[in-house]
Amino acid sequence: MIKKFDFEKAAKDNPFLNAKRSDQANELAELQRACIERNLPVLIIIDGWESAGKGYTIKQLVRELDARHFKVDVFEAEDADAPLHPYSWRFWTRIPARGDFAIFDRSFYYRVMNDPDIQGKKLKTALKHFERVEKMLTDDGMLILKFFLNVTEKTQRERIQELLKDENRDVLISKNDQEQNAHYKKYRDHFDEILEMTNLPFSPWWVIAAEDKKAASRQILGITIQEIRKQIQSHTDASEQSEPAFSRSYGKAPEILQKLRTDLVLSDEEYDQAVGGLQDEADELLFALYARRIPSIMVFEGMDAAGKGGAIQRLTQGMDPRLYEINPTAAPSDPEKDHHYLWRFYTNFPTRGRMAVFDRSWYGRVMVERVEGFAKPEEWERAYDEINAMEEELTDFGALVLKFFLYIDSQEQLERFRERETDKPYKLTEEDWRNREKWDDYVEAMNEMIDRTSPPSAPWVLVEGNDKRFARVKVLESFIRAAKARLK
Amino acid sequence: MIKKFDFEKAAKDNPFLNAKRSDQANELAELQRACIERNLPVLIIIDGWESAGKGYTIKQLVRELDARHFKVDVFEAEDADAPLHPYSWRFWTRIPARGDFAIFDRSFYYRVMNDPDIQGKKLKTALKHFERVEKMLTDDGMLILKFFLNVTEKTQRERIQELLKDENRDVLISKNDQEQNAHYKKYRDHFDEILEMTNLPFSPWWVIAAEDKKAASRQILGITIQEIRKQIQSHTDASEQSEPAFSRSYGKAPEILQKLRTDLVLSDEEYDQAVGGLQDEADELLFALYARRIPSIMVFEGMDAAGKGGAIQRLTQGMDPRLYEINPTAAPSDPEKDHHYLWRFYTNFPTRGRMAVFDRSWYGRVMVERVEGFAKPEEWERAYDEINAMEEELTDFGALVLKFFLYIDSQEQLERFRERETDKPYKLTEEDWRNREKWDDYVEAMNEMIDRTSPPSAPWVLVEGNDKRFARVKVLESFIRAAKARLK
């Protein structure tokens, strides 16, 4: 049995739980303004049985809200056999910006809920990813409210029949509705299991008895009001307290970069002899990945002036440009700042078969944002886990993930900067010189990053970059080796 | 016969037309930097016969380009029977930002080119929209280069066979390829007609003999270099000249808003009696539009404090929030400023059956941007035509387009501002007071706007707004009337 929430008990603490709906709606609009002022994002998920009254509930939620700061998204059936993107992609692209409300009709849970045959390990893997996403977002300050509208077999049947009779609303009935009702017991057990497994401390489920639509929507409004108030209160408490001392168990990072060889070189002849053939081979392999619908994600990080752009150019030069996209990562734009730091990357992941190259990436969180203090210590500290979790979703989805770290030593960087000053001044900024002064801090952060984000499924390829030709060939060869292994 | 370009003649003026490809690629990279510096956007369309070597050509174009400032987009087959968006939507969403290159593999022309049965009036209508879009973009400073790769029936057949034999590249062959080759003559005549009709002075076609892939790509690189140079030159010339005097033939606008009645009121009782029933009816009608897959676009403009937000809320309050989206229009963000002013609206048009409400809109171009001088006179002057053209595409697509103009007189605005000062200070800004000082300029611009953008298919509904209740009911009734007429 799906557990029920004790509303009578809760009503004592929450005067808005059973208040008039118009009062509730006005109260929620007040709270919306408070969230806008405080930059608090709120995600409300309305899930539950088909035909349980989700549309009605959402209508009541938004009736007094400021339209500039909420949006409603509907997650309908997708092509489940061959999704083009990793599963959580379409949710990431729609998460609310700071200060905004987003209301989801169905959610991440759609696919697993509507397929009772997803069980055991497969179910656990899917739910593990949702749990991680919800954790990342709530850690980032988002309030996530998950409602499940519960109706009996009989009520569901009646509602389906009612909608089918309506010449305009019959489009709302899909074969899922009929299917659920025909196998009600089986679905109930399945929902039960999912709700239990994802009833998380930071994003619990609220199961709502939705036999009476009006009562159900009053309860949802009441709970929403209560939880937003709590969120605002804890936000206020936190900002009144002095910054808590942050302590880490991670000690000094191992000396990884310092131990790289700086003497590896290729002559012009060796390079010229190798590069054309490697590029042709890389081209072939990208087509083979495309034919097998395997997406690939190539991350490039490294010291300033280490040759990332040149290495990317040589990697892709022989490839069909219709199969890859290069994503440069600059300082975040305003809309990007208004979202979780991973949001802007999720929107740029490749569809099946294609390759996305990232010239700098989400690793900025644990390098520049750490060293320059743009992220707080607790923020970049938890980023290692978040990044590992995100990359695991990508590799679970079947993606080939390779991360290249291009290293040059301090002396080589100085020479390249000086060369740029005269030859290509547009490629050298004041910031490059400032970063250089913090060389040791960057190396320490980079070493920790490599140490903590190197699972076998998404390894760092360390590239000795003092000689550009050597580095470019190593990148090409590494891609070729990894693609071949993946295609076996 | 498809007309051929006289390359021998052209080569005399363009040393890069037959230069070595590596020199060409480096020259193009130089020019790309010049475009970035000057904020010049470049759109390169590679169209032509299937299997004519588009991928190869694009690879040569991008080989030395800075990846941060170009992207390649592929326009593959879409669900032609039931497209979710107006036709040019997917191209608008991918146009290059100022300073960037975009390379399209196929383009707008895909659908009409691949269906030789599109003829006569239907063909003319489709091509008319492309012409207008190309005009808007080139007027806005974009360079559009359209290449058509031409191959003989025999070459096409050989290339298809070659690709089919390649175990990875066989995915590149679609039934379009086979279909074109089987009916080569029919397609050639069809292409001929399309190329003739869209060989526009501001965006001509360059027909390239693509029998020899290498020669073809040299020609494309050479022409691209030549045309970008010309564009940079004319841009430089224009900025060196003093601003040309701009003269308009349009005189004083008719007094439209001044003649609206300001005494129309509804009592509380009349309003309360009417509004619930109208909201239910609007809800029913939106579902009926959804069932018929008719998208609707509701634009709200008006004086500051005229009650746009309240009217939108009352219009949508009874509707299922899953069927509509409200798009507030604030000052453009940086990425929005980097594109044509219509770009950000194109990305928010509704999919079939849904409703998009715009709280302020593209009409800002001829109101605030005109009055405040954010747009140059020649820019806002041509905007009337551009807006009419865009709305005609929407209504041709089957959309219901309604534009509400909420008018209050100056005295009423003053009272509302004063009320807000005490009650809702967050709804009143310094800018509101500044705009108020330019009341007459705004009214003149608004009158001209209404006069020049009122085709029968996308009319302005003038709403007497001094009494909020009257205005809200008039908006609801107007929507109901228009939706009913559309559904007949």
Describe this structure in words.
The structure is a homodimer of 488-residue chains. By secondary structure, chain A is of the alpha/beta class. The first copy, chain A, folds into two domains: 7-240, Rossmann fold; 257-487, Rossmann fold (3-Layer(aba) Sandwich). In chain A, 50% of the residues lie in helices and 12% in strands. The first copy, chain A, has 20 helices and ten strands. Chain A has helices at residues 7-13, 21-38, 54-62, 89-92, 110-113, 120-139, 153-165, 175-182, 184-197, 213-240, 268-291, 308-316, 334-337, 343-346, 368-371, 377-396, 410-423, 430-437, 439-452, 468-487, and strands spanning 42-48, 70-74, 101-105, 143-150, 205-209, 296-302, 324-328, 355-359, 400-407, 460-464. A five-stranded parallel beta sheet of chain A has the order 2-3-1-4-5, sandwiched between helices. Chain A has a five-stranded parallel beta sheet with strand order 7-8-6-9-10, sandwiched between helices. In chain A, helix 3 (54-62) crosses helix 10, helix 6 (120-139) runs antiparallel to helix 16 and helix 12 crosses helix 20 (468-487). The longest helix of chain A has 28 residues, at 213-240. Chain A is globular and about 80 Å long. Chains A and B meet through helix 3, strand 2, helix 11, helix 12 and strand 7 of A and helix 3, strand 2, helix 11, helix 12 and strand 7 of B.
